Amino acid sequence: MGGSADANGAGSVRVPVPPARPFLDTFRGNLKETFFPDDPFRGVVRERGAGRRTVAALRYFFPFLEWAPAYALSTFKSDLIAGITIASLAIPQGISYAKLANLPPVLGLYSSFVPPLVYALMGSSKDLAVGTVAVASLLISSMLGSEVSPTENPVLYLHLAFTATFFAGVFQASLGLLRLGFIVDLLSHATIVGFMAGAATVVCLQQLKGMLGLVHFTTSTDVVSVMESVFSQTHQWRWESVLLGCGFLFFLLVTRFISKRRPKLFWISAAAPLTSVVLGSVLVYLTHAENHGIEVIGYLKKGLNPPSVTSLQFSPPYMMLALKTGIITGVIALAEGIAVGRSFAMFKNYHIDGNKEMIAIGTMNVLGSLTSCYLTTGPFSRSAVNYNAGCRTAMSNVVMSLAVMVTLLFLTPLFHYTPLVVLSAIIVSAMLGLVDFGAALHLWRVDKVDFCVCAGAYLGVVFGSVEVGLVVAVAVSLLRVLLFVARPRTTVLGNIPGTMVYRRMDQYAAAQTVPGVLVLRVDAPVYFANASYLRERISRWIDDEEERTKSQGEMGVRYVVLDMGAIGSIDTSGTSMLDELNKSLDRRGMQIVLANPGSEIMKKLDSSKVLEQIGHEWVFPTVGEAVASCDYVLHSHKPGMAKDSAAAHESMV
Amino acid sequence: MGGSADANGAGSVRVPVPPARPFLDTFRGNLKETFFPDDPFRGVVRERGAGRRTVAALRYFFPFLEWAPAYALSTFKSDLIAGITIASLAIPQGISYAKLANLPPVLGLYSSFVPPLVYALMGSSKDLAVGTVAVASLLISSMLGSEVSPTENPVLYLHLAFTATFFAGVFQASLGLLRLGFIVDLLSHATIVGFMAGAATVVCLQQLKGMLGLVHFTTSTDVVSVMESVFSQTHQWRWESVLLGCGFLFFLLVTRFISKRRPKLFWISAAAPLTSVVLGSVLVYLTHAENHGIEVIGYLKKGLNPPSVTSLQFSPPYMMLALKTGIITGVIALAEGIAVGRSFAMFKNYHIDGNKEMIAIGTMNVLGSLTSCYLTTGPFSRSAVNYNAGCRTAMSNVVMSLAVMVTLLFLTPLFHYTPLVVLSAIIVSAMLGLVDFGAALHLWRVDKVDFCVCAGAYLGVVFGSVEVGLVVAVAVSLLRVLLFVARPRTTVLGNIPGTMVYRRMDQYAAAQTVPGVLVLRVDAPVYFANASYLRERISRWIDDEEERTKSQGEMGVRYVVLDMGAIGSIDTSGTSMLDELNKSLDRRGMQIVLANPGSEIMKKLDSSKVLEQIGHEWVFPTVGEAVASCDYVLHSHKPGMAKDSAAAHESMV
User: Fold this and answer.
1) B178 in the Ramachandran plot: left (φ > 0), alpha (ψ -120 to 50) or beta?
2) Max Cα–Cα distance, chain B, nearest Å
3) Taking the CB of residue B224, how many other CB atoms lie within 10 A of it?
4) Residue B271 pLDDT more than 90?
5) Per residue in B50-83, pLDDT tens?
6) A452-462 tens-digit pLDDT
7) pLDDT over 50 (residue A9)
């Protein structure tokens, strides 16, 4: 150590106080960084002339304009195979999930016809396969069902489902238009893992009704109510139903297992649901099992989606219910859709604009709600099949949509004898794929708090309700962020011998303290929430160091160097805290020294006059220089005169 | 630049992966740092033997045991003067605030008798003067008054006030016992400035009733309702009342002005309220003004506090109201008490333990609620007088308490003719001291967000209600913290020529980029809330840099160095983000390099296998070394071979 500051480190470079910028400039800059971090209109703004800009803007909102003109036959061949594969999955799954939502089964087919077409025009993902999802279906049935019975008042229930879908779409599109996509980020990966597993558990439990052939069942979704409902009517269990259900479930699981082992055989598990439906229907038709306790789908209306504009309910009594359902299901569906889109985009190395995706998914739901569809998004399982089947563009969604159209126009009578228990088996087998033990284990190994978030979401969904699970998980996640800010880590830094570098003493064994100087580092912004904590914690560090040096007969603390490199931001409580710290150190005969403050910090320290109080000469760009200056004063003057030597020090810098 | 890493910086020191610690150890450590950051029981644990530890624990909970044994006569002389001074302020203020809370005036005297005695035993501040406060009084009257009318059902209202005080005390003490003192920190300085100014405005508006001599008045506190109420009955205004009120207000403001100009004359403004009361009473007695529209206090019961244990209401209909009122008023009162205690402790350079103070204030309110007192805390104005009068220990509270006792026993009849309008004048003059324009201006100059918090609190209180103001201010404050985490700043670092130091390019004009290397710094923890933002923002920095280098014909980006020094924490979404970033850079033929990650970060990168993916050889303790290594590879091999040269690089380190 030792030597003048000029010989080492950044030398004569001082920490500048940034020039004052007009308030509106700063404000506009912050606004842009907050809402347009990805600068989405770069491509549009760069073009010249109104015409070219319009074309660029159209291209921005309708990505198919980019790939459609150059669409080749070879690409279509890939998309055709992928589209037919996902259609064979979409048809039975659509019917199953519509049953799960307590809606007419044909709605599942309607929902696989219009929304995929809209997404093909507006979506920017090449791999997303559009369709209904189990979790949102369950949410619709539990939220709407709690106030309107789907059996006693099916028409109102249906209309509310359309209205909720409409609100979900409007909410999703507004999030995108208002650039509030980051709200979806509040659902962290850990939350989604726990939430999905919980939802899968709850959905599987609901299938006990179909599997056991029960007629009466609880409307609650929590595990306690369901178990009570199941075991209170053991005499109602139908062995025919159980046998058929377990048989098909086994078949589906085996095909899943095979496809998982050999990804090339993806089509085995993709085709299995449709195969089960066909087998089940033939079996029932031949044995007339519908008369022996096996419920069947029954009559399915032929024809394409009827319009449903007039069904939307915008009048007071039920509108709030639909609005609430729409917002919650909308966020959940969006989170799944965006996550799926992003994952596959990463595999294929292209970019997905989250806010644009929200507009696409929102529009597809708004248009869906006007054409008898209920909530759709990009389900993971179907998109994975799409990806594995080798889809190249969103054209595979168009192919799926056309296949569903053909089904709606000509093939609906074939589903008359399809047994409900097969649909239950399809749902259960799909749900088991949502439980990701590996991910939960990974969370536990890497981050215990994230594991708590995950477990909170799971237990909340399973023992409370879907909303409870979400609230618990988001609350724990936010609490963690707040706790990070409220209890920032402070550490003592030591010198790495032979260098000007200072690193954490508890991390680097080689780091050594400098006599008379205590170097502290704060690892978070200094805000109202932690200002008084930091004041006390820093005093305690100083007391501890004083005690240690006294017991070892070393020089006491004369300088407290604060490494501010990790202090990203500061508010007025923070500047007051520094002011008070400076004064109290002053009374103890110590000098505060600041190292490496950022420009925002310098600006605020300057405008709050704290910089004046501390003295600009005690601010250094690096810890090394700060300590070198202290050291210089300590060694060229008698100890105890630290405070008086500021003048001498100034002449040196 | 250039040269091998060994020649510069930290040389052969590697960034270590901290050894795994048992989960419970880490957990216990975190718990201690979160809830016992000040290590309060250090003094107790250090003692040996059960007896000595008991004594130390008693001393911890009853700080008077520390100063009482050595209490000297000279100290008592100071405390006596201070005690009598604050008593002369406490008596008129106590009566005024009790009127403000719509409670019997004598309660203000009761509340200045028992609680100060309790605080003298348990409190650790030497300067806090205990008493009732205007804001909490107003809150009690507006919250309780919204459901129970103080004029129609005065007994129930009174009992609810005791119950609310009881709950407030229990809540305050529990916060302290459960070490949750940081909840009070959520009320930032900015919030309190705005809130206090708003409350002062509202309280002053309420005094229009007394000043104008109105009989009917709105129960709402917002400015619109009050103005409507005042101007709808202009014919009811009493000139006698207005004249008397304005006269005394002028007198009080003049004395305040004098004392502010010459702090030595503090006793002038301290004695002014009592003088006003005496003058006003004599005036009314002589002129029989009580028959000419001047309302007087009337009969005040003689005698000490009656017990009120049996008055507490723990039965359903009103208990929730009392509980809610208690919690809100309790937090507000606590915030004021703690802030006052801390400020004066700082002036005199002694330490205040926030959690211990909460226990003291809580206990004083619980015992107060059992002896006919309502909510008390440490008001700023009274404590400032106490401090200026030269108090030395909490004995000044005992003296004040005894003076109030004498008043209660013998002097209450003297207040019979005290006009209410004088009390209003006393309240208004005290309230004007709560409006701190200077502080608001300071907030605007230093931090616009804090100013918004302050303005939000003010406008919320004035146009909505006290609760609305609080909710707005706390919500804006928390939003700021979340936004800081959700939109962390990322900046490009450049080399300060002639050194190994890297600093922000936008802050240091001297900083220069290194060809082929992009150094980025992230200023916040990497959490679920910002992981996807960071991924996109970092890609944009790289795209921008690629574009710039291409247009200037320089070498493209081959290495992306992430300065992780300011990343205080990371969760699993963060580690996944780094993993994805690494993979996508890999595909673009770039290498990610990490500089200066903390031990927690290293641990998580290791346990999530991301470190393995990136390669431990690409992690450096300083940015300087990281860039030096990249530079070495770039200059000793052909460009474009960066990825292949990892082996060569390894041999160098």
Assistant:
1) alpha
2) 105
3) 11
4) no
5) 888 888 888 888 888 888 888 888 889 889 988 9
6) 889 998 999 89
7) no
**What's the gap between Cα B359 and its chain centre?**
17
Q: Count of A–B CB contacts within 8 Å?
A: 253
C-alpha torsion sign, points B508, B510, B513, B514 = negative
Residue B481's region, left for phi above 0, alpha for psi from -120 to 50, else beta, is alpha
Q: Kindly determine whether residue A496 and residue B23, on different chains, have CB atoms separated by under 8 Å.
A: no
Q: Is A396 within 8 Å of A86 (Cβ atoms)? A: yes
DSSP one-letter code for A408: I
Does residue A521 sit in helix, strand or coil?
strand
Residue-wise pLDDT tens digits, B5-28: 333 444 456 777 777 777 778 778
Task: Name which of A191, A448, A499, A534 to mutate to probe chain B: the one with the most chain B Cβ atoms within 10 A of its Cβ.
Answer: A499
Q: Which residues of B fall within a CB distance of 8 Å from A527?
A: 188, 480-481, 484
Nearest-by-Cβ selection for A573 from B188, B524, B571 = B188
Measured CA to CA, the distance from residue A617 to residue A619 in angstroms comes to 6
Answer whether B573 sits within 8 Å of A540, measured CB to CB. Answer: no
Give helix B420-432 / helix B239-261 axis angle, nearest 10°. Answer: 40
Query: How are strands ordered across the β-sheet holding B591-595?
Result: B502-504, B490-495, B517-522, B559-563, B591-595, B619-620
Residue with tokens 């600006």: A603
Strand order in the sheet with A591-595: A502-504, A490-495, A517-522, A559-563, A591-595, A619-620
Q: Above 50 in pLDDT, residue A646?
A: no
Cβ separation B571–A504 shorter than 8 A: no
- In chain A, the largest separation of any two C-alpha atoms, in whole Å, equals 105
Token pair for residue B371? Answer: 């002896």
Q: DSSP per residue over B606-650, as a string?
A: HHTTHHHHH-GGGEESSHHHHHHHHHHHHHHS-TT-GGGGHHHHH
How far B83 CA lies from chain A's nearest CA (Å)?
28
Pick the closest to residue B472 from B494, B500, B453 (CA basis): B453
Task: Give the side-chain half-sphere CA count within 13 A for A359.
Answer: 15
CB–CB of A185/A354 below 8 Å?
no
Domain with CATH 3.30.750.24 in chain B: 5-22+488-652
Is the pLDDT at A118 greater than 80? The verdict is: yes
Cα dihedral sign for A497, A503, A506, A509? negative
List, for residues A578-635, the tens digit of each pLDDT value: 998 998 898 888 999 999 898 888 988 998 889 999 988 899 988 988 998 887 777 7
pLDDT of residue A2: 37
Which regions of chain A carry the CATH code 3.30.750.24?
Answer: 5-19+488-652
Give A481's contacts in chain B (Cβ within 8 Å).
481-482, 485, 527, 529
Q: Are residues A119 and A381 in contact, defined by beta-carbon separation less than 8 angstroms?
A: no
CATH number 3.40.50.1980 is the correct assignment for the domain at B5-22+488-652? no
Rounded to 5 degrees, φ, ψ at B292 are -120, 40
pLDDT value of position A235: 83
- Nearest CA distance, A510 vs chain B (angstrom): 8
CB contact under 8 Å between B571 and A607, yes or no, is no
**Does A346 have pLDDT greater than 90?**
no
* Tens-place pLDDT, residues B421-458: 888 888 888 888 778 888 899 999 888 888 988 999 89
What is A5-19+488-652's CATH topology?
Answer: Transcription Regulator spoIIAA (3.30.750)
A539 with B489: Cβ contact below 8 A: no
Which residue from B182, B446, B527 is facing A608, i.e. has the nearest CB? Answer: B446
Each as own residue / partner, the long-range contacts of residues B599-602 (CB below 8 Å, 24 or more positions apart, any chain) are: B599/A504, B599/A506, B599/A507, B599/B16, B599/B18, B600/A489, B600/B569, B600/B570, B601/B564, B601/B567, B601/B569, B601/B570, B602/A507, B602/B15, B602/B16, B602/B17, B602/B18
